[in-house]
Amino acid sequence: MRLLLRKPEITKVSDRITGNGSLRSRQGFKTCNRSIVTSCRAVLLPRFGGPDVLELRDNVNVPDLKPNEVLVRARAVSINPLDTRMRAGYGRSIFEPLMPLILGRDISGEVAAIGNSVRSLGIGQEVFGALHPTAVRGTYTDYAILAEDELAPKPAPISHVEASAIPFAALTAWRALKSTARIAQGQRVLVVGGGGAVGLSAIQLAVAAGCHVSTTCGGESIDRVLAAGAEDAVDYNMEDLEVAMKGYFDAVLDTIGLPETERIGINLLKRGGHYMTLQGEAASLTDRYGLAIGLPLATGILLKKQIQYRYSHGIEYWWTYMRADAEGLEEIRRLSEAGRLKIPVEKTFSITQVREAHQAKDRKGHVPGKIVLELEK
After folding, report:
1. pTM (predicted TM-score)
2. Which pLDDT band, with edges at 50, 70 and 90, does 1 fall under?
3. CB count in 10 Å sphere of residue 311
């Protein structure tokens, strides 16, 4: 399939803006100025290491689209902790044979081309979304490729920079709370580490679902998590969580994943509750022992813990990861558009300053909000 970049022609009086932000006419999308896109700029990771290994190259190949895929002209991409961890070697057993990689998961931009089976999105439409954690061709590029179900119309009231900070973190929280724990109105939810992007997303998603939310965070994030809707916030540097938290919870999302936070989180659950940690051991064990040994070993450890905690505490134990969820992304879009789900952006860099951006992200504690790379028009 040839990959076409088509610019929308907005000339007819009959054209109108639809509720999801796309521009349509009675005849559908009107396009002109066709040009073949075969290559573009991209930030490549040729080997693992520090920020200095990142290389911005011109003329990086743009693959042909599959029928369900969408070519997105990137306007902003946010940097997630997964990006810096992958750059440093996390997931080595999976990614090293596939190098060079393009990092990046989040994106906000415009649809440049669509595969033959794509129906929900149109050329010229502003969209946002996120790739799966194991994607090899990421979003640090002028033209990124995502599946149709990994994208949704960009929330109209916010900028590309603001939109790019949301999807990966919010979908990670969505999978834990909505897909796994299936939280419901009136339940109590504890978010361990509520000051980060996933934690803030979890607080806002749980509040939107009608839950009572408590959280732990650093002292500098107390005001932020309370503004996000948490009813109680404990500074984990100053207070004993087990003493400070009153009562028991239906769900605990642990974004820290230390042995101590796991122990406390499980002890604070009601029987029948769900403990979910972002720090599963699958990637670290496969990096250490290889896929053939590491993956079965990780599966065995997870199963052992699930059986152990189900028997000893009557709770469900999970390692949770982000995955594409069209329903979840649509709910995230709706909440973001209504101003009920926000992820703060601390600093922006040009894509040409990607090394500096990763250096800033590596300086833990210095950047409380998301860092976003902007791609010029």
Report:
1. 0.86
2. very low
3. 8
